Amino acid sequence: MDAVISALKPALKRKGLREIVNKLSLQQTWRSDGGVPSPMNLWPRSVVGGLPIVKTTIDETADGFITQAVWARGKNIRPFYSTSANGQVLALCIRNPACSNLILEADQIHADGMPMVHYSKLFCNLPLPERVATTDLVHAVAQRAQETSVSFYFLGGSEAVNAAAVATMRRLYPNLTFAGRRNGYFNQEEEVEVVAEIRAARPDILWIGLGFPLEQLFLRRHLNSLQGIGLVKTSGGLFDFLSGKNPRAPEWMQRIGLEWVYRMVNEPRRLTLRYLITNPLAVYALLRYSR
Description:
Layout: H1 2-7, H2 14-24, E1 45-48, E2 51-54, H3 58-72, E3 80-85, H4 87-95, H5 98-103, E4 108-111, H6 114-123, H7 134-148, E5 151-156, H8 159-172, E6 177-182, H9 191-201, E7 205-209, H10 214-222, E8 231-234, H11 238-243, H12 251-255, H13 259-266, H14 268-288
Parallel strand pairs: 3-4, 3-8, 5-6, 5-7, 7-8
Antiparallel strand pairs: 1-2
Helix pairs in contact: 3-7, 4-14, 13-14
């Protein structure tokens, strides 16, 4: 991941980042193409850590996803693009401002970290009501999808993890339709084939779990080629949790923003150094680039 981020050319200086932060809360969309028509474009945003985070709840977001997916059926337009930010993403945006440009290509950014929510309630003009974690959101959307025949597609993870994640969702939601699934082990030369497979399946919602920034880079290259799909949601490590590969932290740790501690204890070799670097940068981003 570090190599991928290093390859991104910093197209935005720190001064430019501050200027964008000052403007973001005044815009309904910040995409150059004006975004996809959606009621979700009208949701208010709070600038947290330098990113425009939508002020919404899990239930509101799930309703919005279903409405968007149903509305987009039969329309030859690109998907509505929803992504998330947590402390790691804030830190990466500080280390390499090109990451800010990358995540700002989304139509919508959720807060997938409780520290962002807590900070907004104390210091931001527009407090966030709750964390919209993808690991919780997928269940809220699935419950509604059963009732509206909205179909899913899971892209990402190893073959075993992807298959297990789909099996878990089918067990929990027997009436949920899966248009397809595919593991995330493919190179850029194979991406055109992957996109063709997804378009042929025509899912209403595409959940893409390649991790930041690979999933965002994939969508930078192919979002406009995914016409006919209602919505795409970047999902990070969602499939690892659904498959049971990675356990979730106890709810009390999630509520107070210490899920990262639980994850670090469970994966010390992979995560200890990462959090020692990213946590201070994320705190700096919150203090310096929030409104």
